[in-house]
Each structure stands twice: as structure tokens, then as C-alpha cells.
Description:
CATH topology: Rossmann fold
CATH architecture: 3-Layer(aba) Sandwich
Low-confidence stretches: none
Largest sheet: 6 strands, parallel
Number of domains: 1
Amino acid sequence: MSSRDTILSKIRSALDGVKEKSAYPDYDASVFHSRPRLEGTPREAFDRNFIAAGGEVMPDLAALAAFLQQGGHTRGYCDPALMDSVGLALAAAGFTVETSYERSRYEDYQFGITRASGAIAESGSLILDDALTSDRLAALSPWVHVAVLRESEIHRTIPDAIAAFGPSRNILWATGPSKTADVEGILIEGVHGPGEQVAFFI
């Protein structure tokens, strides 16, 4: 058994006794809202805040194909459940699109297209839920991650999104591309995740 398997085994063992999640603490959600960030419809607020965080919102498949082509990202992964709605159009445009993510070949995937379980208008965040994401690594290791979701899945505020958490134990919020300023306060993007984070609504 590898050290990774040993660690994951210990985590699973520790979680086996956990039957229910703890209740959320009581708080007045209204005092935590950023009113200027909530102006407009949920979609307008999400687009504005997501773009401000460095994300890209694609209006249609043609724009997505042009964006990927312009960056030289011609080979990638697509969640099999999204192949009909997204992947086939990219394949027809000349992209190499695979529906099986091979972890040993992670450097071969220039983009990853996976399902997002929602978005948060207030913070401009995408919600990636392990229960609905076909492969977590396909969302985190390619330089470009395309999160696909429906406009009806946008939560207006952060408390709304927390209240809608499902049973998944692993939920990730992605607010634009990965970034860090740990070294001398210099902002660097794409260090520990995608350098380009895209939201695509279907």
C-alpha cells in the first residue's frame, strides 16, 4: 500500500463514524452581504464578479472554441455527460476531445471541461462538487478549466450557497483562476490549479 493509499484509508476510516453533518451556526446573513456586488440580476452579478476575479464567461460554443484556439489549447478532456452539449461541437471544430481522463497523462490535457454544481453571484465563484464532477483532477490540472452549468444554478449570496450544500463531503469554490501571493506579495496565477477559469452556461 502506497503512502497515499494509507492516508486516504485513514481518512475514510475516520469519516465512517460521522453520520450527520454538524448544524450551521446561527448568524444574521444580511450583515455579511456586499450590496454593491449584488447589483443586477444574479447572472449579471455573477458575470461581473467572476470577470473581476480574472475568470472568463463564454457566451456560446463559437466563443469558447475561439478562446481555446487563440490560446493554443487544442487537446483536452470533456466529461462524458457534457459530450453531446459541448464536446462534439469542439471535436467538429478540429479539437481533440477525450472522455476518459488518464491521470498518468495529465500533462497532455490542455483544457478540461467538467460540470459545476452551481455558482455564487455575490463572490463570482463556481461550485465544484465531487459528487457531480466526473474527475476532480480534470478540473484542476489542465491550464484551462471550463465549468459548465445552468443559469438557474446561480445562488445570489454566499449564505444561499451554503444553505444549498448537498451531501458531498468535498466541495470546492473556484473564484477565477488559481492564484497566490505567498512570495513577497507578488500575485502569480495558475500555480496550483488552472491558469484560466471559464464559466460556460447551457
